[in-house]
Amino acid sequence: MRIGISCYPTIGGSGAVATELGKALARRGHQVHFIVTDVPFRLGEFHQNIYLHEADTMTYPVLRTPPHDFTLAALMADVILQYNLEILHVHYALPFAVSAFLAREMLPGHPVRVVTTLHGTDVTVLAQDKSLYRVIQLGLTKSDVVTAVSHSLARQTHELFHIDTPIQCVHNFIDPNVFHPAATDLRECFARPGERILLHISNFRKVKRVLDLIQVFHLVNQRIPSRLLLVGEGPELSAARELVSGLGLEGRVHFLGKQDEVAELYRASDLFLLVSEKESFGLVALEAMASGLPVVGTTAGGIPEVVADGETGLLAPVGDISRLAELAMRLLTDEALHRRMGEAGRARAIQRFCLEDKVAEYERLYEQALCQGKAT
Which fold has domain 2-173+354-375? Predict the structure, then answer.
């Protein structure tokens, strides 16, 4: 198949999933065209069967802001026509599904089919803006196939937009050959012998509740000598630094900034923390599980679909800092429980969220979309 993929190029679950999906499709012999505003952060070096098309947005004094979405739509139309794409798989309703709709309107009669994957923010955050509600709704209803990365997100989308469009759940995935347990010397860079390492990776938005996480770590560290690794950047970074300073944790918390390659950090850690108030899936929790790392998290959104509470990690209600700290200390002090949950997490990641299985699911959806197009 000839497949176009559009996604955000920045660090985040949606960009990582879209990029890894494209690479896997290319390895399976499909021709894959990334139609983006910048090179996706996990694409990097040359890959056979992958083509990169970057939108070059013009500026004009009359326009208050550059017309990024229109430029993207025009590029989509050009690539669809030039390479006779069969599938255009867009990740996020806004702007990508809407831009795909505009691109197809530019090419009346072209049989390209649009598959939209929802990753969360376009539903859980952007849809709260009344000025964007109908635009997002348009992108969803004009797509040929809509998927969501969790059952929770699919239900929430139907409830918010009151649409008849079926939304199929295709969970996110990991490559177990990339994320796996292994010994590493990296621990020595952060912790002394006997100290435990807790890890968190996110974009530091308010919904990630990084300040809660630091409070959890503070309680844990009072009982168990520990270090906290914080990976990523975002709006809450300054507040997080201030709280760390206020609690006297400067020597215990390491701000590592944005990191493209994080597999080694999972291997160096003892526990992964994800205390979000909204989480459509929780890809970082899955990566931790695949690395043999137990997870302590909240029951928000799709997290319980990833982390089997009591089997691969321990979950608590959003905002329950003392309970989250208690669960973390339980895992850090019970070696048998820690080992059992780490092994169960690795097994669950391979059995239910393996890359090749999910790529095959998407291939079936592409075929379904093409068959629907021929039938009409």
Answer: Rossmann fold (3.40.50)
